[in-house]
Amino acid sequence: MSYRALAALTVVLALVTITRLLVPAPTSGGAGPDRRVLTQPVDGVRTLRWRRGQAEVVVERTDDGWRMVAPAPGPAEAAVVDDLLGVLTAARWQRRVGGDQVGPAALAVLEVGGAALPPLRLGPVVPGLEAAWISDGRRSWLVDAWVVRALDRPALALRATAPLTVGAAELAGLELHLGTAELIGAGRPLRARGVLAGGDVVLGPDAVRALVDALAAIRVVGLPGAAEVAAAAADQRAPVDASVRVLGAAGARELRVVGACAGGGALADGPAGWLCVDAAALTALAAVVARIQAEPTAVADPVPVRAAPTALTLPSGVRLVFSGGGASVAEPGASAAAPEAPIAVDRDRAAAFLALLSSPHPVQARAGRRAGATLAVETADGTVALELGPAGPAGASAWLGQPGLATVWQLGGDEAALLAATVEALRDRVLWAEDPTRLLAVRRDGIDTSATELERWRAAAQLQVRRWASPAERARLTGARATARVELVFAAPPTPGAAEVVHVLERVRATAAGCLARVDGALVELTTATCP
Predict the structure, then answer these.
(1) Is the pLDDT of residue 491 over 50?
(2) How much is the pTM?
């Protein structure tokens, strides 16, 4: 046989071999064979174990999710484990034969606990094919190479690699020692201790986010073996001096750097076992802490109250109740003899109170300033005690503070005056919201008045009181006979079934500025122009 003929025969035999590997044997009947490698459901899988020589990687399902048991105990990357189970379900064979086609070349042995499946031997990619063998010892399946690659996961790919991740909203405490950069904080919102003389500093959202992001960036870069741990412990040279403890909704998470990993990174010990973590990320966290130490007033929360206020008690004792974008008060001095219904606060004033409490203010160190009064802000989360400090010499502004804090919030002059307002200054002076142009009629003592008087009342616009009667006046004039009565009849609102709106004004007694009158039952002082 010539050389060329021999070469051609070799090529043909190779093609036949490849075809037999890739093309399944024909089957009888219309339906093809079940090509699933794993026919059992994966819902009951409790453990996954990879054996590579003497080394083992084990993950198991717990009530709290997937956890790695070996080589580094701790939370497993649940998405990766779920994806791996999905690969087991999706794996389809190209060819199925009896016996073990993997042999000693196995990359790993995968044991699936809870699926009633023998250990699976994962073979390397077949030369010349993008396919690999999987075998249970009795049978072998030729599958796409991606299946074996997806099943042969290294330990680090299965381990949760962000051991200090915590949400900003759930961060309840931390203790960071990073060389000379140190920070201890507790509570929600987070109060940093010891960064400013005189008390704690409530960290603002930007500072908390910087801490949370820096903690999340600390990644596991390796899972050291016992020999590497022993060598690093003996060497006692750490790339960074670090001890980190974080408290969140899932409890405490912590690690302490004790040495250097052979493959790079810092060797850290903690409840999750020995880990190699990114040393550069620890250095970045130290920089965040150093800025908080250096500029505590710049990172302090500029907003006095973050939660939505439901009520506010002023230094005078006046208590505002917020609802629906407005507010109401109960006047001090009201008694059983002259009960006081909730008094509506001017809506602009109500908005100003909310803005004062929930808007950013310049922050300064308290530096021994003494408060002159106190306030109480009620929220759904509890009551926040605030202190009000007076304006000082040389143009120093009034301020708000909190007991135990080393910082204060500066107030503008109008804001300080607002907190000193009386009920009389706060209450809404507009008695009703009807459009004056919709006034249809004016009746005096039951008789329609002239067109001239109708126009006069329309020109008066929305009726505003000069002042509200005091509790003493209300008690004294309860039941007093009216000397005049005026009814203002407005057109019905543009809603189906609505009736005309009638407001009643009754003159009770003359005053120097006008008169005391009952307006829809409320005793107020009106100007001469609007007296009945």
Answers:
(1) yes
(2) 0.73
